[in-house]
Amino acid sequence: MSSKNHSKLCDLQRGLATLFTLSAMTTAMLHARTAYAADAEADAGVAQTMSMVTISAGRPTSLPTQIPTTIEGITAAQIERSINAVDAEDALKYFPSLNVRKRYIGDYDHAVLASRASGTGNSARSLVYADGILLSNLLGNGATFTPRWGMVTPDEIERVDVLYGPFSAAYPGNSAGAVVDYLTRMPTSLEAHARLSGFSQGFKQYGTNERFAGRQGSLSVGNKAGNLSWWISLSHLDNDGQPITFANKLVSAGTPGKGGTPVAGAVADKNPSNADWLILGDTNQTHTVQDHAKIKLAYDITPTVRANYTLGWWKNDADRHVNSYLRDSAGNSVTSGAINVAGRTFTLTPADFAPATGELEHWMQGLSLKSHTKGEWDWELAVSNYDYKKDEVRTPTVFLSSPGAKVGTLTDASGSGWSTLAAKGIWRPYADNSHIVDFGVQRDSFRLRTLVSNTGEWTSATAGTKVSSFNGDTRLESVYAQDTWRFAQDWKTTIGGRLERWEAYNGSLGSSTSAKKFAERSETSFSPKFALSHELDDNWTVKASAGRAVRYPTVSELFQGAIIGDTLMNNDPNLKPERSVTTELTAERKLEKGLLRATYFHETTHDALYSQRNVNVTPNVTNIQNVGLIRTKGLELAAQADDVLWTGLELNASATYTDSTIIDNPNFPASLGKEQPRVPKQRATLLASYHPTDVWSVSLGARYSGKQWGTLDNSDPNGSNYTGVSSYFVTDARLRYHFDKQWSASIGIDNIGNKKYWAFHPYTQRTFIAELQFDMR
């Protein structure tokens, strides 16, 4: 056996040993209380508990829970007592195999959701909804196209559910990773809530050693009077995040000699490829001020037909500051010109220490009309729109230290957004619900508008001459149907399919002097779905699922680029869609007070979309390309138990082992046999919450991720530095106390051990959080 294969075998053995050890330990702690109701009872409205999921009759999730596949969830009560949830995405911290790349509190443009077979660079391979309204930003794929988490506040969450994999025909191919559904509160009587919180982080990295702090406040009120229910919520966040980028120069890029201004303060380090470089200062230290308001209305037209309307508004003002470590002989800060570090000359550019500002104002609307008879027929009509009313980013293009320097650029994405339209139905032809047929027609449209202009004064001047522009639209029209059939007492299957027609149009790319238009494209695909479950006895259930997902290129992947002279330098407008086939096999063990689950999953993705270097052309071109084949397989264990060892102790644990390998990639052969970027081999979570009474609760959480790579050819072994992707093990704690029925307070610590870890940018270090909350119900 080769040393490489022996090493892989050892890794596999260690990973499996870890997984089964955790499984054995968790099983030993679990008591036996069945909290898993029969499917027919669940459909009739009886409460059902599966893993962390609680589904009640009053506010059903939009996820197709009758499909026999993996769904996990968490309730508002669990979030409140167990998780330091400042942003909506914090509710996902301890879900099996999930990771949100949230860099700091209020991170609005890089918090990508990663799943079993998708890393934190693949934002378009998951879907996030709030009350059925699409929050996923499918205008692009990557760090800057993250779900619009800010449209949901933690205070309004009633429950969060996650469907793993593309096993429901009701969702497009972006569901290849996971579908997240936020269910928010709608009152049944008068209620009001208020919360004040503060947080503080000590951050020490390279030449930075500072404390960054913030505060947050929220207020919400709602009521139900007759047939009308309403909810109004307001929130305000003001936070200073830690620096997330660092100015740097490769030592090899310096010219030996005595030229330039001698400076001190540069920090010697090695980059992810282990090349020597110098860290010159920190940049992108973000001060973000976010305001959010939402109005929700629900009107019962009849006892079984309800109309819902949601209007959301989110505003963000961001200032990104810079701090040079460099000092001349007089102690003055140096940010421009030629510098000399240890006998080598380097030339600083305006981009090395360029601050930036952002002004964003986004609006969201959703309207639905839905029946809930639970009889033979139910139906829903829904429409939603997400609009970049204002989306401007400003940055200087000259050295700010130069006298009178003011010019810069303005990047304006105003007018971008997306809209959805859907008509859905449910048919239950038999009174015993032995068949439940879901079907529907959907239309999702995406528009991207980006104009980069010169400005005479970078902080506030109006747009001047054009620098560049890129625009485009995509549209996905779909029809789907799936039948969940209980064909025998202990057997259930779901068979379905989704037919899609995709179009890309209005694509254009412009420079200061010219513009190019792209031809329209259209493609059609069909994605079959299948799931089967068998109840072996009262405690054991086995499930098998399979689904195809076609993830079409986004507007940004197709049309964003540049024109140099009269030559088009853009991402390939003829990109193929990603085509994934995912299967999973699950065994579930019901326990008296919990559930134990083991899932084997396997995914093959043809033509995966990645930015890479094409070595088959001269000169080499780096852009978005299709990677021939990526194969991912793994094992996921999850366990949940209530009243473990003593009353009031809840445990939720998971462990995942993943092998994700690039099998075929003609444009970049160096990546063959390498691991898919940002998909670690090992992941694990543990959340223990103790609440012996209604007065107080305490929780301890742990999150682990193994070694990751940031490049397709795995040429970045040094992940524990800037631009690297590192392993991590972090722990969090929370203590909550109720003074009386209405007032409560909590204190928490995220990253107790002050772990320094990276996903290109640094994550937060040890952070203290304090909350004071008022609830009237």
Short description:
Residues 307-752 form the TonB-dependent receptor-like beta-barrel domain. The chain contains 4 helices and 42 strands.
Key traits:
single chain, 777 residues, mainly beta, Maltoporin, Chain A, 4 helices, globular, receptor, ion transport
Could you characterize what this model shows?
The protein has 777 residues and is mainly β. The chain has one domain (3-776): Beta Barrel (Maltoporin, Chain A). The protein contains four helices and 42 strands. It has a 25-stranded antiparallel sheet that branches. Strands 3-8-9-6-7 form a five-stranded mixed sheet. Strands 13-19-18-14 form a four-stranded mixed sheet, with no helix packed on it. β23 and β24 (435-455) form a beta hairpin. The radius of gyration is 26 Å and the shape is globular. The termini are far apart.
**Radius of gyration over C-alpha positions, nearest whole angstrom:** 26 Å
Binned strand content: over 45%
Level-2 CATH architecture: Beta Barrel
Cα end-to-end separation: 66 Å
Helical/strand content category: mainly beta
State the oligomer.
Answer: single chain
List the helices and strands and how they pair.
Elements: H1 3-29, H2 39-44, E1 48-50, E2 53-55, E3 71-75, H3 76-82, E4 99-100, E5 113-114, E6 127-130, E7 133-134, E8 157-164, E9 178-184, E10 191-205, E11 208-225, E12 228-250, E13 255-256, E14 261-262, E15 267-270, E16 276-302, E17 305-324, E18 338-341, E19 344-347, E20 356-371, E21 377-396, E22 408-412, E23 417-427, E24 435-455, E25 466-488, E26 491-511, E27 515-517, E28 521-535, E29 540-551, H4 555-559, E30 561-564, E31 567-570, E32 578-591, E33 594-614, E34 621-641, E35 649-664, E36 682-690, E37 696-705, E38 728-738, E39 743-750, E40 758-759, E41 761-762, E42 767-776
Parallel strand pairs: 6-9, 14-18
Antiparallel strand pairs: 1-2, 3-8, 4-5, 6-7, 8-9, 10-11, 10-42, 11-12, 12-16, 13-19, 15-16, 16-17, 17-20, 18-19, 20-21, 21-22, 21-23, 22-24, 23-24, 24-25, 25-26, 26-27, 26-28, 28-29, 29-32, 30-31, 32-33, 33-34, 34-35, 35-36, 36-37, 37-38, 38-39, 39-42, 40-41
Signal peptide: 1-37
Pfam family, one: Plug
Family: Belongs to the TonB-dependent receptor family.
